[in-house]
Amino acid sequence: MPDVLITRRTFPAVLDLFERAGLTVDHNAADTPLSRAELAARLQGARALMPLLTDRVDAALLDAAPSLEIVANVAVGYDNVDVGAATARGIVVSNTPGVLTEATADLTMALLLAAARRLPEADAYTRAGRYQGWELFQPHLGLDVSGQTLGIAGMGRIGSAVARRAALGFNMPILYTSRSPVPAVEAELGARRVDLDTLLRESDFVSLHLPLTPETRHLIGAAQLALMKPTAILINTARGPIVDEAALVAALESGAIAGAALDVYEEEPAVHPGLPALHQHVVLAPHIGSATTRTRERMSLTAAANIVAVLGGGKAPNAVN
Questions:
Q1: CB 261 within 8 A of CB 112
Q2: How big is the CA angle at 265 (ends 295 and 283), to the nearest 5 degrees?
Q3: How many helices (H) and strands (E) would you count in the chain?
């Protein structure tokens, strides 16, 4: 039986790494996910699983894989894996922190700018041949970004990288929430730690950079959206269920907030039906936060390196349990 099951098409460098380590691989080389039944069947005898965040790795699946030693998730988040169930069975769970920080921070700023300056609307308007020349009151007047306050919920690696881009590149004052103070960011950028309600009330842009946990699910709902400025924009490149999408649609439709820029969705890949109909200051992306070739390859190699370490008798460098 193969040592490693890779659930989706991967990079040649990953297969080379496993070959050099003397590990055999069962590789689903397609761009479509394995069904639950096929995933369970192909895990028989496998010592390692290398899934994507779209693969649900729960207790039932783990029970179908008695030889499994490690689940090396190709993502920084691991809410698709039942870590408690894995731990109870002596299975290591690892993730890919660090390697996707800069790409995700870049996309966060791109979404912020695109929503504020209404770039998708302006692009569609121009492509449709409707641009007739410069006007003082053009149809796509946007919102200022430079000098406006950015609120960051979650000042981890990605939140800190976004804060640096915003503060140093756009002169944006930074508010943030975090379980503990982050003195380095405060000293470097003048960031101010506040509670969530204060952040929502005072920020012109609110960017979410939190893991999905029972505590953060629907952290942003109707009550929180009501605290935001009517000129504010919400950006989410973290996990979709952190935001109550129905409440967000209602807030956008009523003008309670000015806009939203989303890369993740509550019932992904489904998008709330109210969102595509909204255009003004609303940007929707298909979960591309880490989607650069270099970053995705580094994520995959990081996951593979965790597998090689564990199956070689060592410790996973990026274990989360």
A1: yes
A2: 80
A3: 13, 12
**Cα–Cα distance for residue pair 199/222, rounded to 1 Å:** 16
User: Are the C-beta atoms of 61 and 36 separated by less than 8 Å?
Assistant: yes
**Is 232:205 a contact under the CB 8 Å cutoff?**
yes
Which residues, 6+ apart, have CB-to-CB distance to 230 below 8 Å? Answer: 255, 256, 257, 258
Beta strands in 142-229 (DSSP E): 150-153, 174-177, 192-193, 205-208
Give bridge partners of residue 176 from the DSSP assignment.
Answer: 152, 193
Is residue 200 a contact partner of residue 206, using CB atoms and an 8 Å limit?
yes
- The answer to whether the CB of 35 falls within 8 A of the CB of 56 is no
Q: How far apart are CA 29 and CA 161, in angstroms?
A: 33
Give 10-residue mean pLDDT values along the chain (321 residues).
96 98 97 94 97 96 96 96 98 97 98 98 97 94 98 98 98 97 98 98 98 96 98 98 98 98 97 97 98 98 98 98 97
Pairing verdict, β 150-153 and 174-177: parallel
Asked if 305 and 82 touch (Cβ cutoff 8 Å), the reply is: no
Please report the pLDDT score of residue 148 as a whole number. 98
Catalytic residues: 239, 268, 287
Q: What distance in Å separates the CA atoms of residue 146 and residue 125, rounded to the nearest whole number?
A: 25
Residue 317, token pair as written in the block? 């460098």
User: How many Å apart are CA 200 and CA 23, to the nearest integer?
Assistant: 50
What are the structure tokens assigned to 58, written together?
């729960």
In order of their start, the domains of the chain are 4-99+293-311 (3.40.50.720), 101-284 (3.40.50.720)
DSSP state of 228: S
Residues 103, 138: Cα–Cα separation, whole Å: 32
Give the helix/strand (H/E) hosting 122. Answer: helix 119-127
Q: How many CA atoms lie within 13 A of 244 on its CB side?
A: 13
